[in-house]
Design goal:
There is one protein chain. The chain is α/β, with parallel strands linked by helices and 279 residues long. It has a single domain (2-208, 236-273), classed as Metallo-dependent phosphatases (Purple Acid Phosphatase, chain A, domain 2, 4-Layer Sandwich), CATH 3.60.21. 24% of the residues lie in helices and 24% in strands. The protein has 6 helices and 14 strands. The protein has helices at residues 11-28, 49-58, 75-81, 130-140, 159-169, 216-224; strands at 2-6, 8-9, 33-37, 62-64, 85-86, 102-106, 112-119, 149-155, 175-179, 189-190, 196-198, 203-204, 240-247, 254-262. The strands form 3 sheets. Strands 5-4-3-1-13-14 form a 6-stranded mixed beta sheet. The protein has a 6-stranded mixed beta sheet with strand order 6-7-8-9-11-10, with helices on one face. Helix 1 runs parallel beside helix 2 (49-58).
């Protein structure tokens, strides 16, 4: 199976970048499933039904969220109606967070894909233990038996926590990938147990920025320690950043992972796929 995961979409630039590049990537890479982290899709903060629809129209099969899940209040009702929108799994039960933290999807080709979204606790507002939360999900939907692919989005600040989650899920997930940092890391690899891993997928954003935001306000706060207003997404051409994964059809474990970077300012990286061997 071939699928792709794209990192945090920041505002209009990120949405436009995916609208321009994702349809062609789906064809060129013969992608059967596409996941996008969309927690910054609406003007850099949260998601709305309209911005989600843009990403689905561009070719997303599933959208994951993170610490900005509820910045747009309509998300709390939209997520109940939209099963393709996944919020972090490890909200405390007493929070009664709407929606779902995992979902099993059926692809048009008959494959089954489990997507899990987690929120880290190091240097972030702490939710419940993400390791304890993901464990029963993986046991209930075993890779290679129930699911043809299992994708875990670990939305976290600390690289150590993301790496620990990768090793915790190794052998039980097709891909564990980090989001939230907005910078693509250079460590894509297949872990010893067969799980594809990258510490951060990067962002779909204008990289002439500070993590996708216009530079002036972050610079003002760093240099003066005084806020001059809200952060605003940068508006230049986006680099679409993510990872491409190919799995073994029998086990669901990864046999290939490569970075995707297309458009904008960063060095370009697009995997090569022999369509004659597809599926």
């Amino acid at each position: 199976m071939r699928f792709a995961f794209f990192g945090d979409v920041v505002g209009r630039s990120g949405r436009d970048g995916l609208a321009s590049h994702l349809p062609g990537l789906r064809r060129a890479l013969d992608l059967e499933f596409v996941i996008i982290n969309a927690e910054n899709a609406a003007a850099g903060f949260g998601i709305t039904e309209a911005t989600a629809r843009e990403l689905f129209d561009a070719g997303a099969d599933c959208l994951t969220l993170g610490n900005h899940s509820w910045d747009q209040k309509e998300a709390m009702t939209y997520i109940v109606r939209e099963p393709r929108l996944i919020r972090p799994l490890n909200y405390p039960a007493m929070s009664r967070a709407p929606g779902r933290g995992s979902q099993l999807f059926d692809t048009p080709s008959g494959k089954r894909v489990l997507v899990i979204n987690l929120l880290g606790r190091v240097f972030m507002d702490a939710l419940d233990d993400p390791f304890a939360a993901v464990d029963p999900e993986l046991d209930a939907c075993p890779l290679g038996a129930v699911a043809d692919a299992v994708i875990v989005d670990m939305h976290a600040e600390a690289t150590s926590e993301k790496m620990a989650m990768g090793h915790f899920c190794d052998g039980r997930a097709s891909l564990v990938v980090g989001t939230h940092s907005h910078v693509p890391t250079a460590d894509c690899q297949i872990l010893p147990g067969g799980t594809a891993y990258q510490t951060d997928a990067g962002a779909c954003a204008d990289y002439d920025s500070v993590i996708g935001n216009q530079k002036e306000e972050p610079l003002r706060r760093f240099t003066t320690r005084i806020s001059g207003g809200r952060y605003k997404p940068a508006e230049g051409p986006a680099t679409v950043c993510g990872v491409f994964v190919e799995t073994d059809p029998a086990s669901g474990l990864a046999r290939r992972i490569e970075p995707i970077r297309l458009g904008g300012r960063l060095a370009q990286a697009v995997p090569q796929v022999d369509l004659a061997e597809a599926r």
